[in-house]
Amino acid sequence: MPQILTDSTLDDLSPVHALDPEQRARLAASGQIAAIAAGKRLTALQEHPWLVYLVSGQGALVRDGQKTLIQAGTPRARQPLFSEQQLLDQMILTEESEVLRLDRQLYDALSGQQRPAVPGSLEELDLSDAEGALLGKLYHACKQGLLGLPTLPKVAHAIQEAMQDPNITSARLARIVQVDLAITGGLIRLANSVFYCGVKSIPDVRNAIIRLGMEVTRSTVMSLAMRQLFRAESPLMKHRMKAAWNRSVHISALSYVIARHCPKFNPEQAMLAGLVHNVGVIPILDYVSRHEIEASEEEVEAAIIKLERMVGELVVSYWGLGPEIAEIVRYSGDWYRDDQETPSYCDIVRVARLYRLNQSESRGPLPRYDEVPSYYKLGLGFPTTDGTVDVLAEASEELGAVMAILKGES
């Protein structure tokens, strides 16, 4: 096993061999070779972020119940083990083996083969037979307006409408907010938090709105209301909704803290952006739950991967959140995207997502948060030696406070 990957390591691997030497060297630098024990199972879902190659040993590729033996060194082993379209495939290693993982997004960026984030038709999704049943139902329900897009909670909708009036007053906003005790409490806690705390503690929602300001109040109410949407009937979907909510809250809080250290950004808008970046999971999980569709966790996860961004864009458009939020739903997971000179809220959410993955969920050679264009555009400075962004390391109290507010904790 080569200890240091070089461009020559990739010479015989398809399709990466078509890159020029400099590009292959960059891709190799992001790669990783891992030893895998005999009997270990790899899944296309878990390995989706990477191009995976078998470099030693052998294993059986399982697709739709059919097994194909793959031996290292053969022409088949020089192709990726998993197709990006066949997300239900599995690989069972029949002997101790080694696999090479290369960053799929980086390869796409280097080769210029990036696809649109939101597919326009079912055919563009390249469904396998096994995925077709669930994905087909979800896709057609989505296109026909039957998916059941979540409506904004009553208070959030009322705030959105009220903010259309240029003469809106804090007293009127307070009357709207007061019908929801959880949101009222959240606004008061934010106004008295380390971010806005003044000389005197604020006991009521009207004075909280005055301290926060109209736009901050609007974004905060929208964010606090989001919690009501992450609900499902079936126990399995409840579990997945809770996991999605906790992930969104963490990314939202990270986005808030990052925005506080970047000029010209509204932290509350960044908080909302982080909270809705994966809003597409809500209608998908809700649809499966309401229609009692029999689907494995793998099939549901495959549906989320392929449809989440398309559904998410429909949701934020339905809510009237504007093109900037839609851009975040589309592109905040595209680590290497660099199509704008000036930083945006999408850059903030992108760094927050990657930071969280680096800290808690990373499997395989994902880029570090400080290796992507968004990090430098935001001017966050240099990371510390232990791999933590300075502004986040110094803001653990702030991070905890935002997460507590969003979760409705005292």
TrEMBL record:
<protein>
    <submittedName>
        <fullName>HD-like signal output (HDOD) domain, no enzymatic activity</fullName>
    </submittedName>
</protein>
<dbReference type="Pfam" id="PF08668">
    <property type="entry name" value="HDOD"/>
</dbReference>
<dbReference type="InterPro" id="IPR013976">
    <property type="entry name" value="HDOD"/>
</dbReference>
<feature type="domain" description="HDOD">
    <location>
        <begin position="149"/>
        <end position="335"/>
    </location>
</feature>
<dbReference type="InterPro" id="IPR052340">
    <property type="entry name" value="RNase_Y/CdgJ"/>
</dbReference>
